[in-house]
Amino acid sequence: MRAVDIIEKKRDGKTLTRDEIRFIVQGYTAGEVADYQVSALLMAIFLRGMTDAEAIALTEEMLYSGEVIDLSDLDRPRVDKHSTGGVGDKTSLVIAPVVAAAGVIVPMISGRALAHSGGTLDKLESIPGFRTNLSLTEFRSMLERIGVALIGQTAEIAPADRKLYALRDVTATVPCRPLMAASIMSKKMAEGITGLVLDVKVGNGAFMKSEDEARKLAELMIQVARGLGKDCVALLTDMSQPLGSRVGNALEVIEAFEALRGNGPEDFITLCRELSAEMLVLGRAATNIDEGRARYDELIASGAALEKMREIIVAQSGEPRTLDDYSLLPTARHQRVVKARRKGYVQAIDTEAIGRASMLLGAGRLRLDSKIDPGVGLTIAARIGDEVDENTPLATLHYNSAVLMDEAAALTLQAYQIGGERVEAPPLIKAALR
Amino acid sequence: MRAVDIIEKKRDGKTLTRDEIRFIVQGYTAGEVADYQVSALLMAIFLRGMTDAEAIALTEEMLYSGEVIDLSDLDRPRVDKHSTGGVGDKTSLVIAPVVAAAGVIVPMISGRALAHSGGTLDKLESIPGFRTNLSLTEFRSMLERIGVALIGQTAEIAPADRKLYALRDVTATVPCRPLMAASIMSKKMAEGITGLVLDVKVGNGAFMKSEDEARKLAELMIQVARGLGKDCVALLTDMSQPLGSRVGNALEVIEAFEALRGNGPEDFITLCRELSAEMLVLGRAATNIDEGRARYDELIASGAALEKMREIIVAQSGEPRTLDDYSLLPTARHQRVVKARRKGYVQAIDTEAIGRASMLLGAGRLRLDSKIDPGVGLTIAARIGDEVDENTPLATLHYNSAVLMDEAAALTLQAYQIGGERVEAPPLIKAALR
């Protein structure tokens, strides 16, 4: 078998066999197939597409390029959630303790912030002392002991994905449905889960800008998960404005802690409840979604979810007093309020621009090696449909360095489209694919 | 400027600017743009195409990646011919001395055999002692002295093309019109020519299988040449059977020497005459094609072309006695005749298979570093339209090693499609684009 023949086949729009996909994935991981051949193949896949069967084979080959955690001896359902990424999305910090408090195992391997989009690991690491770089042995031991762990991808998990993603990033082949599905699912399938809930974001702050695109990606990921024998459902959810009212790292941790006490913006609370309910059903801790929602409310009201979060923080060497005293979390030294310049209604918010403003302040990464400033970010005052006057606050910027402050403030102001027309906020949950 | 943005632009079917093309070509030649980015871009170009203006810009940037020979001080027209490659095409060995004998300068930089297709340099090197690796200084001195030189590509000429071609070869991006045009024309434009005649081959032994594809490539190459201020015409010629009756290296040299004496198969003689006539017109040694044809016949009949060939051989350190005594050329030790198995007419010849058979015998290269056996090859006995019986010889294989002999013989036999229907041989010259 030769890589050039496989490239030619895909170039001409033909379907690759599992053996051909294996040859490429194994060869690339082992350094035997050259990166310049793989990048040509990636571009051919981008422009020619892949069948569902090809995407499943690609996922499986990427999955078996590394270690696949076997948690079957834990003898309980094991369910994770994956979000395709957005602005202000801190649901994992609420969902993981809630679902684990219900007795479902939550083996959660998360990612870091990149470009305009935040990352669960960076948020967790704003808790002083919190370690996300647990070994797989520590991960397993936490799951046995407290039923949940929140860690970063280790070198053992899907090494093919790490190499492929780095290559896609510099060859303009990231936003390609089968490649995205295989990248996400190869990592998730390595977690030893029995079920997965997908939160596929739609809107100007998401990677998928249209509901149609998002639905196709969700359907493909469900096919892949089922092809590999896992339960999988997906919610398509709105990302045409930031989720909740805080964007940043410590800022979002506070919002998550508040949600664990039952407080916070309605959209964020609702999404946490809906995603948890789906996970509880897949985890057999609820027989239907309504029961799942009730269970969520109970676990919040009883304080069980908050206590589970305390266990997680302790187990991962974080400072548990932050749960009760938010002043122990990093904060920014300065604040600046961005105000509306005209009267009207918020028609739309350029959510990606909000994410970029947050990144400019230091909450995100321009490049993989950029350093995060955990205290900075934005609090969002006005949402789509809100009525504003001249000088109504739209958002507050929390910053430490003034260097990119003006650019961030200008971005934030421009992100708000204000007009005379009354508008309805878009629905949060657009569809459930089960 | 970032390579990834340029890749994305072409991926989305947009037109690249000259600055973007320059950034890639200069960056790649200098080792600053990575090969894995260039290969992704090449695949995007393959699948999305390029405008004529992009192809012209690409050619010019590749051309100026290296040395551009300036022969303007020679103060005479300088004309070369380029063939897109086929099986049995030894026309350069006849045309170069004919056109030079008419007083037109012929600065010819040729290529080597690859896959099923032969190479002028390998043919010339079957003449004992013949050197094709002249320096540019020697090249220029020969052109001043005898008006013609036949050399290989030097490291100074279009280094971007060498790097790009090597990358295209392993990434399935060779058969792409704008990339082919830029590759060919960047090298030809570096020769210091004023005019160029293109022989664009069409048929199952050519890279272009259909006349439509060949015409589009020819038109693009003419646009590129004119865009760079050169005269350029193209003939579309048949490659649905081998050209002439000999395929191999020394075998083809003998056929070329015979043609310089006015002897040989009609198709080969005709093509040499037609291409020479076009070159003589571009070189102002004839005012029209008919006059060019007459001039060709004169230069052959007078022996002037043969004497020019002798001058070339002497100037390039070859053994000039080979011109008169073909036994001084390498020959194969063994011969095997491949005979027809049934009665009928030759309907078609798989010309690429004949080329591959010749390669298997050792006349060509499977890879760039394969060694050539100069004496081996095939003589073709039956052509399209010929009537054959059981046991009529189709071709004779000239070989030294029996290793791949049976495979070559089987390929040759299978290449001949014999049937009951009477067929006409396809016309040799399909079109002239002037």
Description:
The structure is a homodimer of 434-residue chains. With 434 residues, the first copy, chain A, is of the alpha/beta class. Chain A has 3 domains: 47 residues, Transferase, Pyrimidine Nucleoside Phosphorylase, Chain A, domain 3, CATH 1.20.970.10; 252 residues, Pyrimidine Nucleoside Phosphorylase, Chain A, domain 2; 90 residues, Aldehyde Oxidoreductase, domain 3, CATH 3.90.1170. The first copy, chain A, contains 16 helices and 13 strands. In chain A, the strands form 4 sheets. Chain A has a 4-stranded mixed β-sheet with strand order 1-4-5-13, with helices on both faces. In chain A, strands 6-9-11-7 form a 4-stranded antiparallel β-sheet. The two termini of chain A are 39 Å apart. At the A-B interface, helix 1 and helix 3 of A face helix 1, helix 3 and helix 8 of B.
Which features would summarize this protein structure in a list?
homodimer, 434 residues, alpha/beta, Transferase, Pyrimidine Nucleoside Phosphorylase, Chain A, domain 3, Pyrimidine Nucleoside Phosphorylase, Chain A, domain 2, Aldehyde Oxidoreductase, domain 3, four-stranded mixed β-sheet, four-stranded antiparallel β-sheet, 13 strands, 43% helix
